[in-house]
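User: Study the chain.
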Amino acid sequence: MNVEITGAKIYLRLPFGILITETQVNMWIIMLVIALLCKWLTRDLKIRPSGKRQVVAEYLVSMANKFVVTNMGKSFKSFAPFIGALFSLSLLCSLSGLFGLYPPTADLSTTLGWATVTFVLIMYFKLKMNGLKGYLKGLTEPIFVLAPFNVIGEFSTPISMAIRMFGNISTGVVISTLVYAALAWLSSVVLQWLPGALSGIPILQLGLPAILSIYFDLFSGVLQSFIFCMLTVLYIAQEAKES
């Protein structure tokens, strides 16, 4: 039994080392789905909703606003579109595995990109609060010899956020692949007594892979998307409120 796990496929190699990968293609598909869904939900809006579509749209918006206001305060309600977009994108990326797509969140470049955006926002509020001189001085506290550790601590925030989601989603992909392949091999061993092509039918692949997919793609995907957005809100709010 040979099992090969290579990550996202490379579809096209462009000049200057630019690659078009499975992650990028699937990400654009998901963004297109989100754009079309938003277009459909917000079409022909009325002051008083008269259809289920507008009710759903208003409910989603109110949930995003409530999440941001509860964790950051009313003065930061403008962050709701950013957090809503981040959650919907990360959620659909993780759930894409249910539809046979390679989850973009199983690629470290995806989660690292999102974490970098959070890091930039954190740095913005830190510089806004302390200024460049005050920020650099803070890296030397409580004593100068700890400055290297403080610098490492600054960059550990986006790295830990990125690796947390990437590790959980990619682990699900690896475990599901190994279990799926193991069940195929076990089926061939247990059912080898059957005549002809019947012995090659992977009957044992029915059931367990679906259960694993529900856990890793659905439950874990929703949970990790929520945690990522919660950490984003809390990290930004910590600096924003102080400023």
Remarks:
- The chain has one domain: 10-242.
- Strands lie at 10-13, 19-21.
- The two ends are 58 Å apart (CA to CA).
